[in-house]
């Protein structure tokens, strides 16, 4: 694969950082909205929190997750970092899979499942079968996503673990005649 020029690398890195910042910002918004939904005594606010979270999960969260994943892969493949050369990159790849699962699928589903009960029952949604469990799963997803993003930021800054040792085939034994 062709290597990036310095200018191309900087542009791609800038895009990667912007998408990552959007993801972290979305997590802050999700924490605020989920916390508001947890403590509100207004049924309209409860429904609005779930509606806004669902809108964000189906738009900004998906776009930023896809953007950071694509730019991250491009940066790895088109620079000397490579996809599997360093332990910290592999750790970021695993955490990216967590973010894809939680962000693209989990947050969307959990917020979608909360919209109808809050629209129909208002604050009575808390007594609706499964609503509390769904809200708890939403909180677990938000926490997992937030921790994953913070750890990925830390890995990007400190780059721990170093380079992986390349696999080397054992030398063939020489037959003696």
UniProtKB/TrEMBL annotation:
It comes from the Bacteria. The chain crosses the membrane at residues 12-35, 55-77, 89-108, 137-158. Keywords: Membrane, Transmembrane, Transmembrane helix. This is DUF2269 domain-containing protein.
């Amino acid at each position: 694969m062709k290597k990036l020029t310095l200018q191309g690398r900087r542009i791609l890195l800038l895009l990667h950082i912007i998408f990552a910042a959007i993801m972290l910002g979305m997590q802050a918004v999700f924490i605020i909205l989920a916390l508001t939904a947890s403590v509100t005594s207004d049924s309209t606010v409860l429904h609005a929190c779930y509606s806004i979270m669902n809108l964000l999960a189906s738009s900004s969260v998906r776009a930023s997750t896809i953007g950071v994943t694509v730019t991250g892969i491009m940066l790895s493949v088109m620079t000397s970092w490579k996809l599997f050369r360093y332990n910290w990159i592999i750790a970021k790849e695993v955490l990216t899979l967590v973010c894809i699962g939680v962000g693209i699928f989990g947050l969307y589903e959990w917020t979608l499942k909360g919209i109808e009960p809050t629209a129909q029952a208002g604050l009575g949604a808390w007594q609706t079968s499964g609503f509390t469990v769904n809200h708890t799963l939403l909180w677990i997803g938000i926490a997992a996503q937030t921790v994953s993003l913070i750890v990925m930021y830390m890995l990007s800054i400190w780059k721990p673990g170093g380079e992986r040792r390349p696999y080397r085939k054992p030398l063939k034994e020489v037959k003696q005649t």
